[in-house]
Structures are given as C-alpha cells and as structure tokens.
Amino acid sequence: MSDRRRFLWRCAAVPLVAAVLVGAAATSAFAHATLEETSPTAGQVLDQPPKSVSLGFSESVEVALGAIRVFNSNGERLDIGEASHPGGQQNRVQVDLPNLDDDSYVVTWRVISADAPPGRGAFAFHVGAGAAAGNLQSLSERLLADQGGDQTVGFLYAVARFTVFASLALLVGAAVFLVLIWPGGRESPGAARLVWGGWIGAFVATIVGIALDGAYAGALPLGDAFKPSVISDVLDTRFGRVWLLRLVLLLVALPLLRLLVNRRP
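Predicted structure:
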C-alpha cells in the first residue's frame, strides 16, 4: 500500500473511531420505557379500596428519581408510600396506599429508563359503585401539566448532554489524529488546544449533567439541582453511575493526554 493510500485510510479511521466511541456512550439515550399494565387498571371500579398501586413497564425503570402520585377527585394529593420494585422486578413500580374512601382517583407517573428522557402519564380508577366521576380527563391533564418540569432545566440538561458528546468527539478525534496521522503535531499549540478543549468541555459538562440529571428526571426546579440529596439520588441510578464513570475515566486519561501533547492545559 502506498504512503498516500495509507494516509487516506488513517484519515478515514479518525471520524469512524470517534463516532463509534461516542455513539457507544450515547446509545442508552434512545431507550424508552412504555407503560404496559397497571393495577388497578385504568377505569376499573373496585368494591374494596386497593392496598397499593403498581405499574408494569416494557423495560427496567428507576424509582429513585421517578414519581408516582395519587390524587382524589378534588385534585388533593394523597400521602402514599415510597416507590419500590415489588419482588425485585426492575420493570415494575409499586406504592402503598392509605385507606381510600369511596371516590375516584387519578394516578400520575413519571419514570426514567436507562439514560432516556422521563416518560409520564396518568390513569384513573374508582372505589365504590357511587364514586364521583367528575371531569377526570381534565383533572389528569392539569395534574400532568403541573408535573411537566422546569423548561429551563430541560434546556440546560440538553445543552449539557450535547456538550458532553461533542467534547468527547473532539477529544477522541484529536487524540486519534495525533497518534495515527500526525505524531509531529504533539508539539503544536493548536493541537494541544483541541485536545484540552475537548477534555475540559467533557469534564465540566459531565459535572453539570450529574447535577441537572436529578432536577430533570424528577421535574424539580433549577434551585434543587445541586442539593446533596438530589445528587445522591442521581448516583443511585444506572445513568447516574454512567455519568460518574465517565468522570472517572476522564480523570484517568488526564496524565495520558499530558504525555500525548506535551503541553499543560
């Protein structure tokens, strides 16, 4: 193979390697859980009040940041138990209920699967044949709108995610280019700026993303993003651990990058 063809093959390999590595990091973002069953079922009329509400999804979901809430026909929120996985089933979520009166009830849910955007919805059930139905559809829509989350948090979280993937693509692409194609560029100030720009962007966006994860997934205001309890809940989830692992790998890569470009950030 001629030197020219070898050079072209190496140039083609750079975006391919960067795309594969960054794509692998982003794959989980396309997972999305859908509600498959509920107990009680939507619209069911019960003679006796249920002891709990359970929801079954198409895949595993998180309960640390998700929320299941129950309201009566007047829109008053009930005091229910903590969400849990019954029997260790990761695709099911259950909450214990207090003693319910004869009435109609609306259940709203907001859960996260993998690193996906939260899924949410609502359904109603009735206790007692004479339960007051009211306009449950309107009530459900209003309750879901109230739990839609802060738009500012959603925007900032999207920016953080984009910055992470773009920075990783820049970092991996620049590093592979210097190793495979232009070893002499390790002394170049411009190459050093590219490498460290990618590393700093990924590092800072990962820290911000960990904080925003909790507020975004739990539909919390921006002021709650940096609360220790919220961050702790994030790190208890799978996608929170992925963010943390990425942060650790970036720190591990730091001395290697300093050797690669022979310049400090």
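Summary: The first strand starts at residue 35 and ends at 39.
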